């Protein structure tokens, strides 16, 4: 019994946490302290805060992965949720490890916009597209994150002649098409953009660098 109790403690999952990007909500955890327990499998449950019963996540029942996609189970973005994980090895089951409370609307990270660069002779025209959520409209297209938040776009330009690290904010606002004018021909410019949520004071990562020579 003592050995079993020890194994229970040793395989108990650690650091159970939700990670979320554009409402793609996944539960992650670390293995227990028993690193050599190769045959460990994991079981995931979830519930809405305030509910008494936990729901099994069938796709994450007896899995070897240490990540579980709960996007569909946490689709009411205003609700807070919990996840929990237990492990089994050699017929011994650990206790449950609980996540912190997770509120998708407050906590999801928002991705950068998609940026398309069109160049003309002394200007660059940018087309920006908001990141999309996993949730779909009736017609099947994915709902953009602008449906859930008041988003601003921040556009930065890098003049490669001057300094590759020096980013200048050239635009902040909601326009999807932006023209950057009075640029010098023959010079390489790179554009990067972020989404910014004023209400939460949160910025996305930078979009990938789009470079062009006028």
What does this structure look like?
7% of the residues lie in helices and 48% in strands. The strands form five sheets. Strands 3, 4, 6, 7 and 8 form a five-stranded antiparallel β-sheet that branches. Strands 13, 14, 16, 17 and 18 form a five-stranded antiparallel β-sheet that branches. It has helices spanning 2-11, 104-107, and strands at 14-21, 24-30, 41-48, 55-63, 67-69, 81-89, 92-93, 97-98, 114-119, 124-129, 132-136, 142-144, 152-159, 168-173, 177-180, 188-197, 202-203, 210-213. It contains two helices and 18 strands. It is elongated, with a radius of gyration of 23 Å. The longest helix is centred in the first third of the chain and has 10 residues, at 2-11. Strand 3 and strand 4 (55-63) form a beta hairpin. The model has no long low-confidence stretch (mean pLDDT 92). By secondary structure, it is mostly beta strands. It folds into two domains: 1-106, Immunoglobulins (Immunoglobulin-like), CATH 2.60.40.10; 114-213, Immunoglobulin-like (Sandwich), CATH 2.60.40.
């Amino acid at each position: 019994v003592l050995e079993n109790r020890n194994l229970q403690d040793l395989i108990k999952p650690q650091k159970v946490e939700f990670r979320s990007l554009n409402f793609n909500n996944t539960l992650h955890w670390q293995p227990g302290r028993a690193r050599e327990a190769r045959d460990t499998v994991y079981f995931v449950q979830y519930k809405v805060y305030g509910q008494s019963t936990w729901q099994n996540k069938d796709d994450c029942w007896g899995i070897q992965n240490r990540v579980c996609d709960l996007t569909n189970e946490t689709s009411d973005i205003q609700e807070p949720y919990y996840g929990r994980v237990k492990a089994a090895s050699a017929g011994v089951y650990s206790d449950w490890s609980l996540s912190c409370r997770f509120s998708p609307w407050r906590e999801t990270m928002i991705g950068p916009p998609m940026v398309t660069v069109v160049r003309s002779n002394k200007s660059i025209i940018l087309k920006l597209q908001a990141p999309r959520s996993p949730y779909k409209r009736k017609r099947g297209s994915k709902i953009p994150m602008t449906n859930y938040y008041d988003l601003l776009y921040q556009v930065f330009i890098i003049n490669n002649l001057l300094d590759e690290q020096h980013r200048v904010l050239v635009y902040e606002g909601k326009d999807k098409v932006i023209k950057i004018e009075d640029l010098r021909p023959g010079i390489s410019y790179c554009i990067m953009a972020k989404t910014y949520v004023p209400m939460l004071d949160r910025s996305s990562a930078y979009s990938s660098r789009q470079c062009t020579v006028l």
